[in-house]
Amino acid sequence: AILNRIFTSKTGIAQA
Amino acid sequence: WGKEGHYVVCKITQEYLSEDALFAVKQLLPDSAHGDLAALCSWPDEIRFHYHWSSALHYADTPDFLCNYQYCRDCHDSYGRKHRCLTGAIHNYTMQLKLAYADASSKFNYNLTEALLFLSHFVGDVHQPLHVGFTGDLGGNSITVRWYRRKTNLHHVWDNMIIESALKMFYGSDLSTMIQAIQQNITDIWSNDVSIWEHCAHNYTACPDWYASESVSLACKFAYRNATPGSTLKDEYFLSRLPIVEKRLAQGGVRLT
Which residues have CB under 8 Å from B195's CB, separation 6+? Predict the structure, then answer.
């Protein structure tokens, strides 16, 4: 799920 | 995990990559990988003493006997430097790859091949319960136990021995047979769980703190339990912990995808 989300642009990134 | 564990996680990942993601991954892999991400998922273990700064990124230190995970409390290296831990590394490399692919003109010049390999390795590691184990026993590394007749330590049991014994006992010493069995479970008994595993709150790209919370809870319930220093771990421990290991490998693969 992470790589699929990274290589398609739609979601935010978990803030540390 | 050891070599086999990372190979399993990344082999599972490759099965479920979207077309775009598979294209991007193949672009980032060096020719020597021949398009196979799994071939390089142990690379961060091989260079951890060459890239000394990367060594602390393979684990997170939970305070002794606490069975929960808190980023602010637990994500730091042995010098107390914040964010230098397994979950901080997953946030970092997720961000590097996302920035590079969300904005092609991004001015950052990150090494995206290394970012992909570190991210793939660390998403695997955060699903190994003792990579989020207790500080005092070094995630089980200083707990000496016997695995059947062999002297070892509890961390090594979870990185390697449970998988190696499973391969011998159930999979004809063939890693692809074990991978197929786990993939079968993903499509059968765990099919309703997969969409939950994939999801992150707030639609985040990755949620390593949640993965770490699951791991430290499993460490308390399964890894440390009945594994006191000097104990001999045999069938009862192996057969009850193998399902946990296989499910964690599956979750690591599905979530990395």
Answer: none
